[in-house]
Amino acid sequence: MTNLRSVPDCEVAVVGAGLVGLTLAALLARANIRTALIDAQPPSAAESADYDLRVFAITRASERILTAAQAWAQIERSRHGVFRAMEVWDEKSRGRVHFDSALIAEPALGYIVEQQILRRALEQAIAGLPALISRRPEKLCGWEAQPDRLTLELEDHPPLSARLLMGADGADSRVRSLAGIGHTRQDYAQTALVCNVTTEKPHGEVAWQRFLSTGPVAFLPLDQPHLCGIVWTTTPDQARRLLGMTEEVFRAELTLAFDHGLGVVTGSGPRAIFPLSRSHAGAYVGPRVALVGDAAHVLHPLAGQGANLGLLDAAALAEVTIDAVGAGRDPGAVHVLRRYERWRKGENALMQTTMDVVNTLFGSTYEPVRALRGMGLNLTDRLSPMKEFFMRRASGLTGDLPRFARGAMN
Questions:
Q1: Percent of residues in the chain assigned helix, strand, coil, to nearest 5
Q2: Beta bridge partners of 82
Q3: Structural domain of 133
Q4: Who contacts 222 (Cβ-Cβ below 8 Å, separation ≥6)?
Q5: Exposure string over 294-303, b if 16+ CB within 10 A, otherwise e
Q6: Does residue 34 lie within any of the structural domains?
Q7: Whole-prediction pTM value?
Q8: pLDDT digits over 319-363, tens only?
Q9: Tell me, what's the pLDDT at 2?
Q10: Residue 312 in contact with residue 402, Cβ under 8 Å?
Q11: At what angle do helices 306-326 and 19-30 cross, to 10 degrees?
């Protein structure tokens, strides 16, 4: 029989070693919270000389969170793009808006960083931390609940006890499933094609996005003046056609879809496609369990906010946990975890709904709607206070932010 007065193996176990899980583990372990990191894949800090197909638009708030995790300095030393402005326009109207970081007296709106570079920086940030227990590769099979802890059943290691289990294991979260937490899922009937391309004109450290009736096409500036990562959202059938085209035909199609926004697309690398869907967990917490990132919510990628919301989840949950342990409270207690859920669930739901409304609005072929959205873009472009509000909000410079996102290190 378990001795309830014994000390658990760790305060927290994080399942999932993606961007959100690694950040969460780094924030906790650097605060001397005994933390176990569990993932089915072995650690890998390898970095290819080739550019990664998967890139993330990192906000200023996420920059501060990654700084607190001791990963940002490594990212700064690695290749990454900076966007100091955004240009957004509509295929079916004359609407256009330009956002510039100078308006809010900031050096940049954000950064474009490859997935492999983020992973390497975070792996280096957690390497050798005394408070971190690594169980990788390892699979979580289930757990036994006691009043003051969970005893986690692992496939290839002895059981591990923790006061709190954090699920950062993606949209098909095993933690969410084992905890019996339901979720809703909606298929967008859209597919994203990603690729790295070179263009005739330099990107000018601007993130470009053109809305088509089938979905937006975005050019995200990488570290070379003529190199961009693209995300082209379209119908599943069109995405499959684009995937199968010769490079020459694909470049011509992309140039037309982007309305020669950066001149001719002169080169392109390998392509990949990803079906898009939305999901949201019915609850973010359960008995000694909390969900973060895609395990809790998935939204449309048109504004590139998915990873940033996940990092804000990680920062908020780390803050709640650190505060509880520092005050001598049980970090897995329901009243402690409810603080995290109240903090993040509404914010994430609002962002999901906003992205859905924008996607529906710009996908409409109804002429009055087209006229309305064009007027909206042009009006926003003329109203500096409105643009300033949108930029500050999207960059994570305002709102109910965790202290790690405000630049406080603990």
A1: 40, 30, 30
A2: 111
A3: 10-84+112-185+278-375
A4: 51, 55, 79, 80, 81, 112, 196, 228, 229
A5: bbbbbbbbbb
A6: yes
A7: 0.95
A8: 999 999 999 999 999 999 999 999 999 999 999 999 999 999 888
A9: 44
A10: yes
A11: 20
